[in-house]
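User: Hi! I'm a student and our assignment asks us to look at how structure tokens line up with a sequence. Could you show me two examples?

Assistant: Happy to help. In each example below, the sequence comes first and the structure tokens follow. Example one:
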Amino acid sequence: MRNAIGILKLLSEGEADIREGRIKSQEGVFNEIENGLNENP
């Protein structure tokens, strides 16, 4: 039951982020990760 409630909270937060424009493209996220890894060899 706790897992189900946690998943519902996560979905709710994600929907709020989308409504408020707090989103990034998948490509942008992976570019940031790759750049961060390349900076710290």
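Example two works the same way, sequence first and then tokens:
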Amino acid sequence: MINDSCGHTAGDRMLAMVAKAMQACLGPQEQLARLAGDEFGLVICNRSALSVAQLLKQMIAQVSLQVLNDKNCNYKVGLSIGVAFGRAPYIDAQELLKDADIACIAAKAKGANQIHFYDDKDKELTYQRNAPKWAVRIAQAIEENELILYYQPIRGLGSGPQRQRMEILLRIQEPCGRILAPAQFIAAAERFKLMPDIDKEVIRKAFLWLSLHPVLWPDHCISFNLSGNSLGAEGMVEYIAQQQHIFDIPSQCICFEITETTAIQNRNRGMEMLKQLRKLGFSFALDDFGSGFASYGYLRELPVDYVKIDGCFIKNLAVNAKDYAIVKSIQDVCRVMGIETVAEFVENQDIIDRLLSIGINYAQGYAIGRPQPLANYREQYEMRLAQRA
């Protein structure tokens, strides 16, 4: 802010004042260095955690007293401090610096003038530390064809003939056979902008699978999740159209899902992409509806065919009158708009009974079916048909 308002010379003056104030708090054996921009590093030896905390609080107090006067304006700055401990002789300077940097991110998240001590047990900090490794692992999984597809069935609750529906889910299968769930790697993929590559690979694999089972085309529809990174990504529409052409898949077999939050955050470019894909004949579902801030009026703008009601309203539907009222209102509005509804997180028959009374069109959850490898679907489907015959 100081650089933007007063210029870099004034910014450098402020940094010099901050460095001098911090240095004044340190003993002769403690070192201060500027790492980059407005980042400094401290090396503190032979102090207890309590002593370090007291020193850093003193440092924050001294820095807060520094005032830069420039162009009749006064400027002050604060400190966010991340602390990591190393014990000789097992000190890896690079690892220690990385841990301190991660702790500093956590300190910033707390607000101004905060201190955070790195802890291996801190789940969020552990994720921040391991995220780069996961990014490499994901890229490797794509390169070595380790992404595998699962499906979860979506059952129609109405009477009469309906398309068989399922949502495509992603897993990583390691060489040892262990299956990694998306909760372990999706956040890292989003952080490092790998989701478009993942989405493309999922689309390619699913289109390939459909091309091998044309008998399913007349009465099946599979849904894919499109991530926020993919929504409006350059070349994504062209890639989808190319895969459809290569595998000759009918558009009515495909439905793309975007979350409510993603749709809001990527409103303009997302809307354009949806319009382009709709011209190709694909359908769309708005996922996790109710979890974000979308209003019913927003549904009028989005070219969606289905609304998937967030599981937070479904899991207690049978015992919570407020959830029942919310789900019913969503169903009533969607019915008037010509949008079909899907209830997520359906885990028992009591919930199914409530959904039927409300008029929800489809249900998805463990009471309907658990995720299974897509490779097994055709065999299981034919077994069900044989049992009905």
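Here is something you could point out in your write-up. The two ends are 73 Å apart (CA to CA).
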